[in-house]
Amino acid sequence: MVVVVVKVLIVSCMCVAFIIYFVEFPLGVSNHAAKVNKKVMPIAFSAKLCELEPREKRSRKGAKMTQDAMAQLVANTILQGSDAMYGRFLDVTSGAQERFEQQDWQSVQLALKTRIQFYDHHVGLVSQQLRAMLGKEHATRSFLMAVKAAYIRLLDDYPRYDIAESFFNSVYCRIFEHRNIRRDKLFVQSAQGGRIPKYPTPLLRRFQSQAGIYATLERMLDSTPFTLPWRDKTGDLKRITQILQARFGPQLTMSFTLEMVRQPFFRNKGAYLIGRLDMANQRRPLVLPLAISDHGELYIDACITDSDDVSIVFGFARSYFMVYAPVPAALVDFLNQLMPNKTPAELYTAIGCQKHGKTELYREFLHHLENSDDLFDIAPGVKGMVMSVFTLPHTGLCLKSSKISSHRKNK
């Protein structure tokens, strides 16, 4: 009986997984998301999980094998959903340059709306799949802890563990309808210790100064993936060279290194080349916003070298960027070096990973509570009819508590 149950569950899981990968993906979309991490795709339980000892030895051990097998199956299912979600996220992101160069601004807005829906959509798919697989008898602490332990093992060396942990939390909350929330069952803190995964290709392009600032900047521009012609590349390079010489003077006459993120950033009608200048005694950010002229030619619109000014570009009041980031933790770590006053929560949100941005914000909130004696204060102003608003000193947080009447709650 145990063998039959396990086989049926494995087959059902694989069938639904095929539906997620082939039915949910529109025709013509690249197969990036189908190339799931090699530790995730194999559901090779068939032989090992279905091996049974003689009947007389099959009791508690057999039951434990079944629970462990089911926990592993659930963990694989959640991580497959997370990987499928982020694969589609990257598919839409990869079209940002084409939309920019074609000045297809309507498609730019549509892509923003489309990409932001993937997370919730795939959380729903995985939640439905797990509800079909599991019964109430699995809602035990021992089983939930086994699922989390299996998931942690899958995340070892996994490049997007940060996104995957938040996805796990979202699936859990969706299934339990935000009840049964316990720290030990969720990734309130990361299980990976903040490790920075390696990029599949180098995150940065490095340009060592050889024949001066102008020549170094020229090599950098020539390495960008843009296909549009430049309106006046020589003139732009001269202006940027003059600006940098005026700001940093003798430091740029000596050996320096220009490090640029390999992938351009796109937002609305602009593109951004983002990197830093590594000079003799200091590092400074370098951000070059690009725009397209009325004649369809590229030009450099500004030269930003101050960390505070770069922070404004990444401000929360602006739309999020589209940047191809297969390893978001590594990109956020680099951006944090350019903008040390920005939190990881803000930077994850700025590159479109807003759900994990919320996870990071909550972690920052907990860190502040654990390392300060601050007390919550009622926010100044007129008291509202629906919400109570309060603040926490020394943070930029404003918290709201909704008042729900018993009549509305019962409805």
Instruction: Using the alpha-carbon principal axes, give the shape.
Output: globular
SS field, number of helical segments: 14
Topology, number of strands = 9
Number of domains: 3
Major sheet details: 6 strands, antiparallel
Q: Spans of 5+ residues with little confidence (pLDDT < 50)?
A: 1-11, 16-59, 406-411
Strand percentage: 5-15%
Helix and strand sequence:
HHHHHHHEHHEEEEEHHHHEEEH
Helical proportion, percent range: 40-55%
Radius of gyration: 25 Å
Word description of this protein:
This protein is an alpha+beta fold. The chain folds into three domains: 2-185, no CATH class; 204-352, no CATH class; 377-410, no CATH class. It has helices at residues 2-23, 46-50, 60-93, 96-101, 105-133, 141-155, 161-175, 213-222, 233-248, 307-313, 328-338, 344-350, 354-370, 406-410, and strands at 204-208, 257-261, 265-267, 270-278, 283-292, 298-300, 377-378, 387-391, 398-402. The strands form two sheets. Strands 1, 2, 3, 4, 5 and 6 form a six-stranded antiparallel sheet that branches. Strand 5 and strand 6 form a beta hairpin. Helix 3 crosses helix 6 (141-155). The chain is globular.
